[in-house]
Amino acid sequence: MININKLLTLKLTTSIVVLLLWHSGSYAQSNDQLSAIRALGTLNGVALQCNALSETQRMKRALVANLPKRRQLGELFDYETNKSFMAFIENSAECPSPQSLKQQVDEALNRLEALYGTK
Predict the structure, then answer these.
(1) What three-state secondary structure class fits 30?
(2) Contact at 8 Å (CB) between 44 and 84?
(3) φ, ψ for residue 29 (rounded to 5)?
(4) Number of domains in the chain
(5) Fewer CB under 10 Å: which end of the chain, C or N?
């Protein structure tokens, strides 16, 4: 059962993060770019929970190599990582196979690189 208060708090927090990104002038150029960062954060939470540290390192290297140097973009990634990590615990989720996780990370990294391009 979904806790409505948690859901509302999550939506409010996400809205605040997006507004801060937009207002600060440090925002991504499109919703697709923000979505790519969120997807990597979600995968990072799973990778941390499943002790796939090589995948977390790969994702962080790609973020550093591709994203503009904006604190807010890193904070969005961290926020999504924490959200994913906690959801994994709450849902008693099972770790994907190493091959499956690697494939998901590969796809997310390819998307990020296509949207931001290597500097």
Answers:
(1) coil
(2) yes
(3) -75, -20
(4) 1
(5) N
What letter would DSSP give residue 97? P
Closest CA to 78 of 67, 93, 91, 92: 67
Assign 87 to helix, strand or coil. helix
| Distance of alpha carbon 5 from alpha carbon 105, whole angstroms | 31
Decide: residue 81, CB within 10 A, 0-12 exposed, 13-18 middle, 19+ buried: buried
- SS3 state at 96: coil
> Closest Cα partner for 64 from 114, 15, 107, 116?
116
Question: H/E/C letters for each residue in 40-52?
Answer: HHHHHHHHHHCCC
Q: How far apart are CA 91 and CA 33, in angstroms?
A: 28
pTM metric for this prediction: 0.73
26 contacts 70 by C-beta, under 8 angstroms:
yes
Cβ-based neighbour number of residue 69 at 10 Å: 9
Domain containing residue 86 = 4-116
